[in-house]
Write a structure and sequence with these properties.
Distance between the termini: 38 Å
Structural class: mainly alpha
Strand content: under 5%
Order of helices and strands: HHHHHHHHHHHHHHHHHHHHHHHHH
Oligomer: single chain
Number of helices: 25
Amino acid sequence: MLLLVGSFIGFMLVGVPVAIAMAVASVLYLIFYGVAPDIIAAQRMIAGVESFPLLAVPFFILAGNLMNTAGVTGRIYAFAVALVGWMKGGLAQVNIIGSVIFSGMSGTALADAAGIGTIEIKAMKDHGYPVEAAVGVTAASATLGPIFPPSLPFVIYGMMANVSIGALFMAGIVPGVVMTVLMMLTVALFAYRRGWGSDSPFEIRRLLSASLEVVIVLSFPVAVYLLMAAGLSMNLAVGLALVVLLALDWYFDFSAVMALMTPVILIGGMTMGWFTPTEAAVAAVLWSLFLGLVRYRTMTFASLARSTFDTIETTASVLFIVTAASIFAWLLTVSQAAQLLSDAILSITTNKWVFLLLVNLLMLFIGCFLDTIAAISILVPILLPLVAKFGIDPVHFGLIMTLNLMIGLLHPPLGMVLFVLSRVAKLSVERTTMAILPWLVPLFVALLLITFVPSITLWLPKELGLIR
């Protein structure tokens, strides 16, 4: 085990990419100890990506890219400005609300930071906000992407832990709302202490227009329910409600109703049993294409091709990490690392809450050094037996793990959101890190609440009958 972990850490320290570091460390371990024939190792690597749930990865990535290409990001931003731009610290509040909405389309923190985050940072700088404040709130709000459904980390975790991805998606909604409220309160506090004003005049007409769009979107599932109660089949009820919605949208030319419908369609479709979470990713792509090519007509075939190639590149890197992490995690199990860690933790405590505290500290540390996908692939096989032993619901643990690793994205030395925002804001990594630090407070508060109040996570999936 020392050779496996030591060589991996050594390669990481000299700057070798995480996937290559895991793959080379695994090969070295196999050569020196001969724990398995070459063909077994190859089979384990292939088995790591030969999974139906993993099909969701490229489609959710493509959906996020298409939303950016179709100009939906700009519409979401304009909608958020109309809704909360008049508040104190208006554009910072807009930043958070925009991330909440965009997270229902992309499912990744990086897509949020690089997509709508680019618009938000520029707007905040133009309105006189310190660039550090713009970067900090953008980084914090980007962590909402993988908490609200859909979520790529949930897909990977669900596959590795053999847990319902639909249950994980539903479990993320209430924690996502809690995180949003905490971040908005933090913005209000900063606005009070630093004298930030509003960035958009309070216009009752704009606020009512934005509120009307929210009401229309939320009334869609209500209308479907009433039509079904009147005797229509589910398919006919949804089709009729959607036709009426499209007609209203074309006639009144709402700014963001159709964009806001994306999470409603995905969550509603999964709840009604129309499609699995994996198939929901395909639905997200089809809806993105409809918005870009038909409704808004802002997408060209050239931009569609560019989005496709960007998706191929990102997907290849994600699946390469999953493949390398699969063989690495398997060798950790074979080398009894999981058992050693289990014995070490059980020698410290047999209390569930102390265990969760220790695991939080472990994952916060690992999140600073490992890519999210790699960390999930490695940690789940090691920690899940302990989770079961302590009687912790694996859905609850999935939320804890994901949020810990999202916080890790904001940290040096390998925090990808940190580097993306550093490049977008044209700040040094050091200044970007210092700008993010105050915004970690609401994230840590949310992490403590989600960890030690399981009902925040488990209430909704239990109500929907997705878990017992």
